[in-house]
């Protein structure tokens, strides 16, 4: 097992189609509310197309248990914090990747609500990716009318 969250577990598995190792996250709870939250996490992550936000490779939220796969990271930012002490270049690289990913989430109409070093992952080569949108929410769209509709009859 690679990780565990509030209502999901993450495993390292081999994708039989591609032959690559990926991360598989599945819902560990069986009640309707937790399954809906898990499904929402998948929808939100799949709707954000940004290099610094985790990509959903495949999902089956109707399966029992619901699951999705994503690229397999090597560690989290929590694991590398000690490497950033006194290393401005490394600190800035991590910080920039985090900021880009975090900024793309509200830009896409969502709020993460659980930003912490454990939820920011590091890939081979140092790429930084924001992950774990299990507590994320879809922002309400502003439906306020900004212009007034005027109807007129021409005769």
Automatic annotation (TrEMBL):
Keywords: ATP-binding, Kinase, Nucleotide-binding, Serine/threonine-protein kinase, Transferase
Domain of life the protein comes from: Bacteria
Domain Protein kinase, first and last residues per copy: 1-155
Coiled-coil ranges (or none): none
SMART domains the record matches: S_TKc (SM00220)
Gene3D superfamilies named among the record's database cross-references: Transferase(Phosphotransferase) domain 1
InterPro entries, A to Z: CC_SR_Kinase (IPR050339), Kinase-like_dom_sf (IPR011009), Prot_kinase_dom (IPR000719)
Enzyme Commission identifier(s): 2.7.11.1
A single MF term (Gene Ontology): kinase activity
Cited Pfam families: Pkinase (PF00069)
Protein name listed in UniProt: non-specific serine/threonine protein kinase
Source organism per UniProt: Paenibacillus mendelii
Source species taxonomy: Bacteria, Bacillati, Bacillota, Bacilli, Bacillales
């Amino acid at each position: 097992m690679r990780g565990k969250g509030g209502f999901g577990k993450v495993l390292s598995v081999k994708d039989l189609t591609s032959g690559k190792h990926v991360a598989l996250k599945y819902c560990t709870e069986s009640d309707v509310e937790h399954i809906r939250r898990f499904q929402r996490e998948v929808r939100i992550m799949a709707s954000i197309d940004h290099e610094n936000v985790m990509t959903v490779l495949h999902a089956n939220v109707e399966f029992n248990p619901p699951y999705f796969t994503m690229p397999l990271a090597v560690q989290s930012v929590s694991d590398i914090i000690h490497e950033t002490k006194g290393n401005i270049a490394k600190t800035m690289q991590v910080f920039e990747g985090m900021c880009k990913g975090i900024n793309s989430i509200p830009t896409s109409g969502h709020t993460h609500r659980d930003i912490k070093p454990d939820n920011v992952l590091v890939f081979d080569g140092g790429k930084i990716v924001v992950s774990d949108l299990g507590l994320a929410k879809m922002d309400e769209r502003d439906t306020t009318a900004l212009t007034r509709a005027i109807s007129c009859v021409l005769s």
